[in-house]
Amino acid sequence: MDRFVDQYLQQFIQSANKHFMSGYNVIFYILMDDFSKLPPIELGALRTFKLCIVFRRHEWKDLNYIYMRNLHMYVLEHIQHEADFLFSMTVNQIFRSDFGVEALGKSVAQLHGWWYFGHAKNFPYERSPNSAAFIPFGEGDFYYRGAIFGGTPYEVLAFIEEHKKGVQNDARRGFKSTYERYLNKYLFINKPTKLLSPEYSWDPNFRPPPQIKRVKIECQSKSI
Questions:
Q1: Beta strands at 26-32 and 47-53: parallel, antiparallel or unpaired
Q2: What percent of the residues of the chain are helix, what percent strand, and what percent coil, each to the nearest 5?
Q3: Which of 102, 126, 155, 180 is catalytic?
Q4: For the segment 155-210, what is each residue's pLDDT rounded down to a tens digit?
Q5: Beta carbons of 147 and 114 less than 8 angstroms apart
Q6: How much is the pTM?
């Protein structure tokens, strides 16, 4: 359920073990390409983890694309039969308070704290019409953070398929956008059924406004 950054993994898992879906069965799917960097992992009751090796191809250059291709493979192979809901998260985050079943839904998106009070015209959507991630000026309602995305395994697969097609189509035209912009394009067309407020992924470099009552997750640094 996280990306390749092993330096943050131990803090992520330790904090998630305490705060993520407390009282429910949880499987942490850890995608890594070098298990020798795996830190010691101690989990409480109802928690297990599974290691998933990251496979690469020479022509795959983008790390987020590599991650998505691997996640797609593992969801089809076994995750869809083991989990009712699935979250993909970057590991450069620390859980600070309970992240519970209120966050579950068919399709779950994270509102980006930096742009929560901004106007849609200023959102950093992909503005090039040459890209599959393109959203025209004057359109769009929210800007979503790429650090957390989830829902049913079927919905996660649906996004991965669109992300894959978008990256491949752009590559054929000699263009490249970002993972977060492809995600925003997907959610612009396929509205999420559950929105998570910025308290679920807050940047500690910013003082929380009055609307943020209790930070549930803090981001540690820039995601990959």
A1: parallel
A2: 35, 20, 45
A3: 180
A4: 999 999 999 999 999 999 999 999 999 999 999 999 999 999 999 988 888 887 77
A5: no
A6: 0.91
Report the run of H or E that residue 195 belongs to, with start and end: strand 194-196
Dihedral sign, CA of 136, 171, 146, 93? Answer: negative
42 counts as catalytic: no
pLDDT > 90? residue 29: yes
Residue with tokens 């990256």: 167
Are the C-beta atoms of residues 60 and 4 closer than 8 Å to each other?
no
* Residue indicated by tokens 């912009």: 181
Give, for 82, the enclosing helix (H) or strand (E): helix 80-82
Task: Give bridge partners of residue 20 from the DSSP assignment.
Answer: 99
**CA dihedral over 117, 120, 122, 128, signed as positive or negative:** positive
Taken in order 30, 11, 8, 143, is the CA torsion positive or negative? positive
Please tell me the total number of residues recorded for the chain in this structure.
224
Comparing C-alpha atoms, which of 134, 107, 103 is closest to residue 201? 103
> Rounded to the nearest 10 degrees, how much is the dihedral formed by the CA atoms of 96, 124, 31, 41?
-10
Coil, helix or strand at residue 184: helix
pLDDT digits (tens, 9 = 90+) for 127-155: 999 999 999 998 999 999 999 999 999 99
Q: Which residue has the tokens 């394009």?
A: 185
Which two structure tokens, joined as six digits, stand for 174?
């000699």
Q: Quick check: 223 pLDDT over 50?
A: no
Give the integer Cα–Cα distance in Å for 179 and 67.
11
Helices (H), 83-207: 153-172, 179-189
